[in-house]
Amino acid sequence: MSRRTTKSNGSRKAAQPFRARKRSGNVFADLGLPHPEQELLKAQLTLQIYRLIRQLGITQAEAGKILGIRQPHVSALMRNRAGSFSVERLMEFLTALGQDVEITVRPSRRPQGAVSVTA
Description:
mainly alpha; 43% helix
């Protein structure tokens, strides 16, 4: 166990001890959020959309025309704020940006399967 010190107004004071915890690999699960697998999938799809828009070198307004959404919604996507979009809608955005989206289902080695995005 380590102790963390914080500096406030020029003085040092001891902070509460902290403990490292093993992570699950899904920050949404680690934070205890509902539907962590879905949130992780949405974040991964949004990241791909962000990368494609940057790679194409288009403005958010141009991206909005391609995706069929207004520029403020593109701005939200570019800041990884996909909350109001479903996984299906995010996949539609990827196809509108010229990408093929492939869904593969196969047996898992673990008791419960997982969802992932590969680009």
